[in-house]
Design a protein that fits this description.
Length: about 140
Protein backbone atom coordinates (compact mmCIF):
# COMPACT_ATOMS: atom_id res chain seq x y z
CA UNK A 1 0.00 0.00 0.00
CA UNK A 2 1.46 3.34 -1.09
CA UNK A 3 1.42 6.22 1.36
CA UNK A 4 -0.59 9.16 0.09
CA UNK A 5 1.33 12.42 -0.11
CA UNK A 6 0.22 15.13 2.25
CA UNK A 7 0.37 17.70 -0.57
CA UNK A 8 -2.69 16.38 -2.36
CA UNK A 9 -3.32 19.04 -4.97
CA UNK A 10 -1.78 20.13 -8.24
CA UNK A 11 1.43 22.10 -8.09
CA UNK A 12 0.91 25.53 -9.62
CA UNK A 13 3.98 27.49 -10.68
CA UNK A 14 4.46 31.21 -11.32
CA UNK A 15 7.44 32.31 -13.41
CA UNK A 16 9.20 35.60 -12.61
CA UNK A 17 12.02 36.99 -14.75
CA UNK A 18 14.08 39.25 -12.53
CA UNK A 19 16.59 40.31 -15.19
CA UNK A 20 17.80 37.25 -17.08
CA UNK A 21 19.10 36.93 -20.63
CA UNK A 22 16.10 34.67 -21.50
CA UNK A 23 18.19 31.50 -21.85
CA UNK A 24 16.47 30.01 -18.80
CA UNK A 25 13.05 31.03 -20.12
CA UNK A 26 13.67 29.04 -23.31
CA UNK A 27 14.44 25.95 -21.20
CA UNK A 28 11.36 26.51 -19.01
CA UNK A 29 9.21 26.65 -22.14
CA UNK A 30 10.93 23.47 -23.41
CA UNK A 31 10.10 21.82 -20.08
CA UNK A 32 6.41 22.69 -20.49
CA UNK A 33 6.18 21.26 -24.02
CA UNK A 34 4.75 17.80 -24.83
CA UNK A 35 8.13 16.02 -24.69
CA UNK A 36 8.22 16.33 -20.88
CA UNK A 37 4.57 17.29 -20.31
CA UNK A 38 4.62 18.15 -16.59
CA UNK A 39 0.92 19.03 -16.76
CA UNK A 40 0.05 15.32 -16.74
CA UNK A 41 1.35 15.31 -13.16
CA UNK A 42 -0.64 18.42 -12.25
CA UNK A 43 2.26 20.87 -12.61
CA UNK A 44 0.81 23.95 -14.24
CA UNK A 45 2.13 27.42 -15.08
CA UNK A 46 -0.22 30.12 -13.76
CA UNK A 47 -0.47 33.80 -14.58
CA UNK A 48 -0.90 35.19 -11.07
CA UNK A 49 1.31 34.77 -7.98
CA UNK A 50 -1.87 34.67 -5.89
CA UNK A 51 -2.67 31.24 -7.38
CA UNK A 52 0.85 29.78 -7.15
CA UNK A 53 2.54 27.31 -4.84
CA UNK A 54 6.00 27.74 -6.37
CA UNK A 55 7.81 30.76 -7.80
CA UNK A 56 10.39 30.09 -10.55
CA UNK A 57 12.77 33.05 -10.52
CA UNK A 58 15.28 33.46 -13.35
CA UNK A 59 18.20 35.83 -13.67
CA UNK A 60 19.98 38.07 -11.22
CA UNK A 61 17.82 40.69 -9.55
CA UNK A 62 18.24 44.10 -11.13
CA UNK A 63 17.83 47.17 -8.95
CA UNK A 64 14.59 48.08 -10.71
CA UNK A 65 13.15 44.58 -10.15
CA UNK A 66 14.10 44.15 -6.47
CA UNK A 67 10.90 45.71 -5.12
CA UNK A 68 8.74 43.80 -7.62
CA UNK A 69 10.39 40.50 -6.66
CA UNK A 70 9.64 41.18 -2.97
CA UNK A 71 6.01 42.10 -3.72
CA UNK A 72 5.53 38.99 -5.87
CA UNK A 73 6.96 36.82 -3.08
CA UNK A 74 4.55 38.38 -0.56
CA UNK A 75 1.55 37.73 -2.85
CA UNK A 76 2.12 33.96 -2.99
CA UNK A 77 0.06 32.25 -0.26
CA UNK A 78 1.75 30.06 2.34
CA UNK A 79 3.10 27.40 2.13
CA UNK A 80 5.29 28.50 -0.76
CA UNK A 81 8.58 27.50 -2.32
CA UNK A 82 10.99 29.67 -4.30
CA UNK A 83 13.08 28.04 -7.03
CA UNK A 84 16.16 29.81 -8.37
CA UNK A 85 16.63 28.76 -11.99
CA UNK A 86 20.08 29.22 -13.51
CA UNK A 87 23.53 30.34 -12.50
CA UNK A 88 22.69 34.05 -12.84
CA UNK A 89 20.11 33.80 -10.09
CA UNK A 90 22.54 31.99 -7.80
CA UNK A 91 25.57 34.26 -8.15
CA UNK A 92 24.91 36.88 -10.81
CA UNK A 93 26.62 34.72 -13.42
CA UNK A 94 28.29 36.73 -16.19
CA UNK A 95 26.56 39.85 -14.83
CA UNK A 96 28.05 39.50 -11.31
CA UNK A 97 29.82 42.87 -11.30
CA UNK A 98 27.18 44.91 -13.13
CA UNK A 99 26.28 48.31 -11.70
CA UNK A 100 22.56 47.61 -12.23
CA UNK A 101 22.26 44.49 -10.03
CA UNK A 102 20.77 44.29 -6.56
CA UNK A 103 22.43 40.88 -6.31
CA UNK A 104 21.52 37.23 -6.59
CA UNK A 105 17.97 36.17 -5.75
CA UNK A 106 18.73 35.05 -2.20
CA UNK A 107 19.85 38.60 -1.36
CA UNK A 108 16.26 39.75 -1.98
CA UNK A 109 13.99 36.80 -1.04
CA UNK A 110 14.65 33.40 0.58
CA UNK A 111 15.34 30.60 -1.90
CA UNK A 112 14.40 26.97 -1.19
CA UNK A 113 15.60 25.13 -4.31
CA UNK A 114 18.51 25.94 -6.62
CA UNK A 115 18.67 24.60 -10.19
CA UNK A 116 22.17 25.21 -11.57
CA UNK A 117 23.16 25.62 -15.18
CA UNK A 118 23.53 28.24 -17.86
CA UNK A 119 20.84 27.51 -18.87
CA UNK A 120 19.73 24.43 -16.93
CA UNK A 121 18.36 21.53 -18.95
CA UNK A 122 14.66 20.65 -18.71
CA UNK A 123 15.54 17.48 -16.78
CA UNK A 124 17.26 19.60 -14.12
CA UNK A 125 14.25 21.92 -13.89
CA UNK A 126 11.92 18.92 -13.43
CA UNK A 127 14.25 17.55 -10.73
CA UNK A 128 14.06 20.95 -9.00
CA UNK A 129 10.26 20.88 -9.14
CA UNK A 130 10.31 17.42 -7.52
CA UNK A 131 12.50 18.83 -4.73
CA UNK A 132 10.07 21.76 -4.38
CA UNK A 133 7.15 19.32 -4.09
CA UNK A 134 8.99 17.43 -1.34
CA UNK A 135 9.59 20.72 0.48
CA UNK A 136 5.90 21.65 0.20
CA UNK A 137 4.92 18.25 1.61
CA UNK A 138 7.20 18.84 4.61
CA UNK A 139 5.83 22.36 5.11
CA UNK A 140 2.24 21.18 4.98
CA UNK A 141 2.91 18.29 7.36
CA UNK A 142 4.48 20.61 9.94
CA UNK A 143 2.04 22.00 12.53
Amino acid sequence: MKPTPSFNRSLWVFHLNSGSCNGCEIEIVATLMPRYDPERFGIKLVGSPKHADVILVTGPVTKKMADRVKRTYEQVPDPKVVMCIGTCGESGGVFYDSYSLAGPIDDVIPVDVYVSGCPPRPEAIIHGVVKALAKLERLEAAP
